[in-house]
Amino acid sequence: MNKLSDAEIAEHMKALPEWELAEDRIKRTFRFKDFVAAFGWMSSVALVAERMNHHPEWRNVWATVDVELSTHDAGGLTELDMKLAAEMDALAAS
Ligand code: H2B
Asked: pTM here?
């Protein structure tokens, strides 16, 4: 998987308005109604991540999940990060 260019990253970020670009990664804080909702969402995301073989860095505190996405094998952002971010957004919205 190839690292995205700055122009490609900028294009993807238009579709991910809740995400913040920070160096070699993108970040978003997800807030849920309680711990069960947060952990339920994490469980759904875990299945998607495993299917993609692309895994998030994340931290859960009660109803909040802080997520950072980057492709370690590529040393930066790839299409996989953008795809996983979009899947996370969709699952949080449903
Ligand atoms: N997840 C992420 N975020 N980046 C990777 O480079 C990555 C991964 N690589 N999940 C995969 C697993 C790799 O380490 C295994 C061996 O396929």
From this structure: 0.97
- Domain span at residue 79 reads 6-93
Q: Is residue 43 one of the residues assigned to a domain?
A: yes
DSSP-derived secondary structure letter, 53: T
pLDDT of residue 1: 82
Is residue 73 within 6 Å of ligand 1 at its C-beta? yes
Task: Identify the CATH number of the domain in which residue 22 sits.
Answer: 3.30.1360.20
72 lines ligand 1 (CB under 6 A): yes
What CA–CA distance (Å, rounded) separates 48 from 58? 15
**Range 35-49 average pLDDT:** 98
DSSP-derived secondary structure letter, 34: S
Flag whether 1 is in a domain.
no
Question: Is the C-beta atom of 55 inside 6 A of ligand 1?
Answer: yes
Distance 33 CA to ligand 1 centre (A): 30
